[in-house]
Amino acid sequence: MNKNNLQKTQRACLGAMLALSLASASCHTSSPDPGGGDPDKPRAGYVTGKAVDSQGKPLSGVEVVIDNTLFYNTNLLTNTDANGLYRVQTPNGSWRATAQVRRTYNGKSYRLDLAPNTADAFTGDEGAVRHFEWRLSGEKSDNPGAFYGGSVEVSNEVGKGPYDAENVEFTFTPVGPLIDGSAGKTLVLSYDTYYGRIPDVPIGRYRITAVYKPTDTRLQLRNRVNGTYAADGAVTMDFFGEIPYWSCTNCMFLEYSEP
């Protein structure tokens, strides 16, 4: 047998062994060890953990994905129980854990990444503990430049100023609770003129106003997708959910103009 054929055979055998291991493990994706013990101590051959919301309360029904770092689209799936806990048996190999929560908010469906206590990979035979937290904002440790909050894509109406966008200031006032049920805070923000967006805004419904700071002039705002200007210049908007619009997931599209 030549070298290339030998390598192909070895890869096929390795893949078959992993497939058998995954089939065995999939029968054991279940709630945490009923025997109890220290929840922060790894159990050999298992990954365990807990998912909580931004107030530290357990999150049930969270989808936890244990993904093999070597083989594409090879993973183990489970969901957290009523106490926010999960346990997955992991075959030998290198794995990484991620989690997402799904919510319907103001008629739109959202699929949101949870923050892991660590994004490091682990070996299946040694086991690991991976806890997850629902964060409404903040940069993702495993994906620098990406954020847990939504993105507000901003532009001025074509042919309308002001054009020195760094002097435009936006005020976001929550209308009702945020997506996780918590009370939001009023945010005063400017936008990144290079990327044309305000990143990392906690997902919720907002009444938005804007002023041109040099003259303290109230600007007119509208939903760039299908909106019109209101008499007071304000606009109330939600983020688009998990179905991307203009290739942007969990975004809103805001347009401003001089009065």
UniProtKB/TrEMBL annotation:
Signal peptide: 1-25
Keyword Acetylation annotated: no
Residue span of region Disordered: 27-46
Gene3D superfamilies given in the database record: Carboxypeptidase-like, regulatory domain (2.60.40.1120)
UniProt keyword terms in alphabetical order: Signal
Cited InterPro entries: CarboxyPept-like_regulatory (IPR008969)
Protein name: Carboxypeptidase regulatory-like domain-containing protein
Species in which this protein is naturally found: Persicitalea jodogahamensis
